Amino acid sequence: MSDHVTAVVLAAGAGTRMKSAKAKVLHEIGGRSMVAHALAAVSGAGISSTVAVIGHDREQVSTHIISLDPAVVLAVQEQQNGTGHAVQVALAALPSAPTGTVLVTYADVPLLTAETLTAFLAEHAASGRAVTILTAELDDPTGYGRIIRDTSGAVIAIREHKDASEDELQIPEVNSGILALDAAFLTDALAGLRTDNAQGEVYLTDVIGIAADRGLPVGAHVLEDVWQTEGVNDRSQLARLGAELNRRVTEHWMREGVTIVDPATTWIDSAVTIGPDTTILPGTQLLGATTIAASATIGPDTTLRNVEVGEGATVIRTHGSDAVIGANATVGPFSYLRPGTELGTKGKIGAFVETKNARIGDSAKVPHLSYVGDAEIGEGSNIGAGTIFANYDGVNKHRTTVGKHARTSSNNTFVAPITIGDGAFTAAGTTIRNDVPAGALAVGNTEQRNIEGWVAAKRPETPSARAAAQSKQESQETHAQENGE
Ligand code: UD1
Ligand code: CA
User: Fold this and answer.
1) pLDDT for 186-201, tens place per residue?
2) Domain check: are 252 and 360 in the same one?
3) Strand 388-390 to strand 365-368: parallel, antiparallel, or no bridges (unpaired)?
4) For 341, which of 316, 322, 323, 405 could close a Cys bridge (C-beta 3.0–4.6 Å)?
């Protein structure tokens, strides 16, 4: 791009039809707010100076935009007097009058890509026009501003739907709202805008008529991919565009060598990355900053948010967030990986296991029915079925450390803080309250004793007491018959 471009992102509207306490442009598709999609398209097109016009819900929207990119200039439009007024407010917020080109775009058009903006700006720059309009031809152009051309085909005006004549309403070509304008022309033309229209607003689109009147060149860049020009006004459109974005994202990863068995039930956020020869099975959601290496198998029915999965790992029917799964590790089915879980290479987290803030070493295994919280498990250790890491004393959390190549047996409770040494064993059903030295076997069970008649004495007249009494009588009768009595 030869000349300097300033982007103006319009985000001041009320979004009434969303019926939401959350600002419209903060609603998400593909794991990103709509305004984040808009800003990503602008910065992806190489534009570094951006003004966002905010108005409704301005605290929420400004906080969010600053978190995305603190370099964005925020311009507050107190009253939404129209798109022309919004651009006036934007330019007034700049430290100096813009030079080169001004790109106007909307915060609620989330499928617009950086590639489209790049091509659009390149065409505008090469043409030497005062204004280039990104347009689309729609089957149903209702509500949009129509592109008015003269008999030679030159664009001479944009007519808003509410101001259009019957003939003009038949025109299928519409203004997407995205415009590239010569900055000096725009600054001058904005000063001449009036409000003598059906909505009593300052229309940005009136600058096209002004340019045509002055004999300045105006042109349109017709976008075949109409999805990219579609705005979101309600939650139904949000879902439609979200599904289309997902279709595009799954298509992209399939072209990159990822097998997606059922794209319709696979949801992949925009920021996710996936290596080649990975297979994604139906009902899987890969969210946030999740990264999947090559040759992994994910799903079916798995949700991962901000999870890093290593090469060749298998993750079946699992719910995980803020976790790391090592190369060739196996997870699931029915595993719950909470934040801070780190599973080593060839490690295993098996069925009905919940982990939190737990480092499970290379080739270490927690195969069945366990809770592992605030723990470190060394390489090659095996944790028996039904083990609970009792990390919480009711007030504070404590850590458990299990060394390398330990073998802990079924149904243990590790009462933290505690350390189990390298190569140590534990007996089944043991509650481990004291540290276990390396190589020791910890046996904590007291010997079983049976208090005869306890139920009859302490729980009389209960079904248990009656069943016990009947059993005793039957065995006495059997005993008597066997003895010929
Ligand atoms: C606008 C265009 C129309 C185009 C359509 C595409 C004008 C006059 N009309 O119409 O030609 O076909 O978009 O969707 O430009 N906004 C502000 N401040 C305002 C008014 C609007 O920030 O004072 C923002 C809105 O939040 C929204 C965008 O600008 O993101 C468009 O506003 P909207 O009221 O939806 O414009 P339309 O009437 O649909
Ligand atoms: Ca609109």
Assistant:
1) 999 999 999 999 999 9
2) yes
3) unpaired
4) 323
What's the whole-model pTM score? 0.91
Q: Tell whether ligand 1 has an atom less than 6 A from the beta carbon of residue 158.
A: yes
Is the same domain home to 246 and 217? Answer: no
Question: Which helix (H) or strand (E) element contains residue 188?
Answer: helix 183-190
Tell me which residue has its CA closest to atom 3 in ligand 1: 145
Residue 368 designated active-site:
yes
Tell me, using a 6 A CB cutoff, whether residue 86 lines ligand 1. Answer: yes
pLDDT at 1: 42
Q: Ligand 1, residues 83, 171, 210: which to mutate, most atoms within 8 A of Cβ?
A: 83
Strand duo 28-29 + 32-33: pairing: antiparallel
The first and second tokens of residue 231, run together, are 């705005």
Q: Please indicate, yes or no, if residue 481 is contained in any of the structural domains.
A: no
- Note whether residue 449 is domain-resident: no
Burial 171-194 (b: 16+ CB within 10 A, else e): bebbbbbbbbbbbebbbebbeebe
The answer to whether residue 480 sits within a structural domain is no
CA distances from 12 to 34, 97, 253, 475 (A): 13, 22, 35, 85
CATH number at residue 100: 3.90.550.10
Same domain, 58 and 177: yes
